[in-house]
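Reviewers of the previous submission asked for a worked example of the structure-prediction workflow described in the proposal, so we include one complete record here. The input consisted solely of the amino acid sequence. No template or homolog information was supplied to the procedure at any stage.
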Amino acid sequence: MGKKTYITTTLPYVNADPHIGFALEIIQADIYARFLRERGGEVFFNFGTDEHGQKIYEKAKENGEDTQAYVDRYAAKFDALKKALNLTYNNFIRTTDPHHIMAAQEFWKRCNANGDIYKKNYKVKYCVGCETEKTDSDLVNGCCPDHSNRQLEIREEENYFFRYSKYGQKLLDLYNNNPEFVVPSWRLNEVRKFVEGGLEDFSISRLRTKMPWGIDVPGDPDHVMYVWFDALVNYVSAVGWPDRMEEFDSWWPVVQFAGKDNLRHQSATWQAMLMSAGIAPSKKIFIHGWVLGGGGQKMSKSLGNVINPFEVVEKYGGDALRYFLSREMTPFEDGDFTEARFKEAFNAGLANGLGNTSSRVLKMAESYLPGPVTVGEAEIPALYSKYIEGLELNKAMDLIWSKLSEMDSIIQETQPFKLVKTDKDAAAKIVTDLVKRLFSISKMLAPFMPETSAKIEEAIKANNLAAPLFMRLE
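From that input alone, the workflow returned the following structure tokens.
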């Protein structure tokens, strides 16, 4: 049995259809999971849906739907990403699951027993779009920068609070002792600066009379848990906490994938909550950027400028989308997605690049060799593994395409299609080497483009490529 690794994405809200920005996160996580399995590792890969909170309650009411029926319908849409994007997650958690609800309540009890939960009256500016309280420093022209189309609410009520202020130094110690805790390093510096600025206790409950869609606060039926407190607990409940501790201990801590707008929640708030509940911190947190539309604006369900990943897959194929998001997007920074840019990348990298080179090599193999090549072990550069371990996926993909370029150069320099007329054995030797190189490329492609990788390997075994891998888009 290989090394065990627990991987999770964040949980998307089910207040709208899946969008391509979240496809980026789950594809990154899937590539990492597939890579670890390719090396013989055992992976628990968690995905799921965040189903409580005011945004969801409002959407269900707006649709005239029962809230549970509403979240059931949307959870199914997100689970459908598994087939569309060819994902390998082996756990789909919903925060309305009975086990998760039990775990969230137990987590609350442990934080409370540690003296970290108390009640007080407060007044705050609140963004329903973020489901987060806002200070003046968070705002741009008096609005939330991520939800400028929604007016901030002023809330004044009695809530339970989490004693966040208690954990500033403990969080700084965590970051200082684990310099790769947040990747990339500049994101760790950002959250360190945030913590150094001083932490304020935050509300972790809502009055049931105002917002009934949430998990009951233990011992107080007048309150439900604040959605962030509840949802974050999924990372431990997914692997058996608190009732299956042998299972939990075998998987924890977790490698998390999260967008930059989740930086504080995942690397500060959640870690403080773990400390309060007596649980070890997460292992590592990869922070990716946003997918932007053609105008350089963040794609957002609430702003209504999203691209539907199901439509992209139906039109161009799952591997093509996986290719674009892993090679054309810089893993840790923002990147544009437009159909024009997608088509350009498709034609250059897939139709003209991988597709053309594979076709040339396999056509020569079928014509010049007596049968399929015995490929042996694939040659995988150490640099390739290093890039994926650091989630520098675009660099790993560029390395694969550099190997394709090397093959093209060999073909141009040796011209086996001419050499075969005068020296069949020499031409066969060159083509055999090219097939072995193509096999190595297929193995490197496997985490990124699993269907394409399998097609190349099948073609090598059959010594025939039945159809082109990718046709040019007009």
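The two ends are 48 Å apart (CA to CA). We consider this example representative of the routine output the project will generate in years two and three.
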